[in-house]
Amino acid sequence: LSNSLCFLSKLINGGIAGIVGVTCVFPIDLAKTRLQNQRRGQQVYKSMMDCLVKTVRSEGYFGMYRGAAVNLTLVTPEKAIKLAANDFFRHHLAKDGKGLTVFKEMLAGCGAGMCQVIVTTPMEMLKIQLQDAGRLAVQQQKPVMMTPTKLVATNAVLSRSYNSGMVISAPRAVSATQIAKELLQTQGIQGLYKGLGATLMRDVPFSIVYFPLFANLNRLGKPSPEASSPFYWAFLSGCAAGSTAAVAVNPCDVVKTRLQSLNKGASEETYSGVVDCVSKIMQKEGPSAFLKGASCRALVIAPLFGIVQVMYFVGVGEYILDNSPLRLLGP
Hints:
Layout: H1 2-37, H2 48-59, H3 68-93, H4 102-141, H5 148-154, H6 156-159, E1 162-163, E2 166-167, H7 176-187, H8 189-192, H9 196-220, H10 231-248, H11 250-260, H12 274-285, H13 294-314, H14 316-322
Antiparallel strand pairs: 1-2
Helix pairs in contact: 1-2, 1-3, 1-4, 1-13, 1-14, 3-4, 4-9, 9-10, 9-11, 10-13
């Protein structure tokens, strides 16, 4: 029972960290999705800051949080599966009582990455549609770039919606629930799992890099083998391991984003699968396209995993359980 309470505290820590982290960095994640989906010659945004400024101008402050509700709802089960799976595999791989080798740590991370895609794939699928809606709306209106005076003269109806001289129709408000229902009705459960292969290609290598790297960086900060590392060291280790793993798997993230985007802009190509997507990006945009949004992704992942480690260090989950009726069930 104490093991289940220990897992419950980890789950609470992971869940709170996920919710706090997503709230802090979601606008950067939105910029990442929009930058990754841009094609050469059709750039709506020049950089992450340009994307955020234009998003606030055209869609308001909350436009930066399009799709956040999906993430906030599913981030706790996603973190729970990832952490539980990693612990489970580490426990079973360390049966001889010795410490884990780096290879076994990588195996545990691989197992965790494979398990978490059960939640990650549909979560990302729905989030991407909502995040990319604003970019598509801007792109569809791009030919209608005029000065505000000309705009008023030419079209009184459209003039109501201009912003900084650019016509932007606000994206049709759709919710994640509507998209999920539509996908289930038209394509069944596999509709929600479109891009599963690309998600596995991203999350498995990410976990293989992140978990062993964090464990070894964190170990460097321990004053003695039995003691835990200082609070700031756990945070920095989480940030460093998270950003390194994020940049390492960014090409897979670009492929995943492109495959999961259901709505395409004018003259944007469609892809039949991972191989087709990789070859078309290479042909039309060159290898640099695979690094699109890499800095955004590092900025999203680093604090997310840093916050997770801080939650563990502070022991929020343990505190909540110690002050709840559940503590009476303990041994």
